Prior knowledge:
Blueprint: E1 27-34, H1 41-52, E2 69-70, E3 95-101, H2 106-122, E4 126-131, H3 137-141, E5 159-162, E6 165-168, H4 185-193, H5 203-213, E7 225-232, H6 233-241, H7 246-254, H8 258-266, E8 275-282, H9 284-291, H10 311-333, E9 362-363
Antiparallel strand pairs: 1-3, 1-4, 2-3, 4-5, 5-6, 7-8, 8-9
Amino acid sequence: MNKYCSKDQAFPDSLVFNSANELEENVANYEIISTCTSIDILELRDQVLGTVIPLLKGYIWQRSAFCPRVSTDGSAPWRRSPKSGKDSRESKTVYLWGQLAFGDNIEDEWFLVSLLKRVTREMPGVGARVWDNDGEFLLIEAAYSLPRWLKPETSANRVFLYGGEVHIVPLPSGKHPTLPPSPTVDEALGIVASDAVRTEAPAGVQAAIDARLGSYPEGAAGMMHSARVRLPARCAAALAAEPLAIGPAVEAFYARGPDDMKAAAAQIRFPPVDIVTVLCRFNRCLYAQLQGQTWEPPKGYPMPPVDSPAHKAASLGAKVVAGMEILLAREAASGGGGGGSGPDGLCGPARPPGCGGSWTASAE
Length: 364
């Protein structure tokens, strides 16, 4: 069995995120790189977003959203020198980079892969890389179809998405003796983009990745779950203005601590008045997290009888409100620097506004 069958493999130590030289868990890291050194990096970002935004409609992220940053505003953390904090690689290539925190929802990570595949398919000369704390998870998924020589210790800077397909830069051989034994990212992508060496991964690898992606990216929004919830009108308006706030709110509620309980009980930002019933959109993981939690609403929170048809919507709503209260209390305690995700599903984590926005609800 190929060593990539083990989920315990770590990515090369040269890619670090913190002082302990460890990759963060449940975070997908990615780069989008142009082989054209003369392209304006902001133009590259605009083209990427123009490709991706139509595919994000209706999608609810778990923790953070797709938000590629430009390298000229700050290099990716895995490219920085631990001592200087600056980009440790000499590169003339412009690139976008990002980190997607997906928490317990692994589907966010695979949706990201589908977006990167689409970007590289639609944008000639653009490649992408993606990995997490397990390492090259694309190779883990396709473990039974990999070349025998490809192991964690030989995979650094060799795996790319290009032209909508998975590419693997081979080792030097008798047929290609001039290939670098330890390529840089720039060298490897240059090899992928050239016609001199065949780098497209075997058909079995492509099939394994495509099978895992299924109907993504177009079909991703159809896998969301909508449920009726009873909320204070102010909270309903906040979620209508910022639908992606539901992810961080549910996560905050799900991982609540003693201080969070106080914030939820205070009901300062979303007092339980003007209760309305609205249709709220979740991903399946978020909905399961809410449903699986036992929660006694704060004293004074209006709840219908347990045998009432409205009780389920009220119970879900009480948990959502608690999560929103916790989320905003945490932000206030940290200085309130979070940015909203925006209606296009970009740039998280989402921060719910205090109030405002248009919404459709049935007042009760």
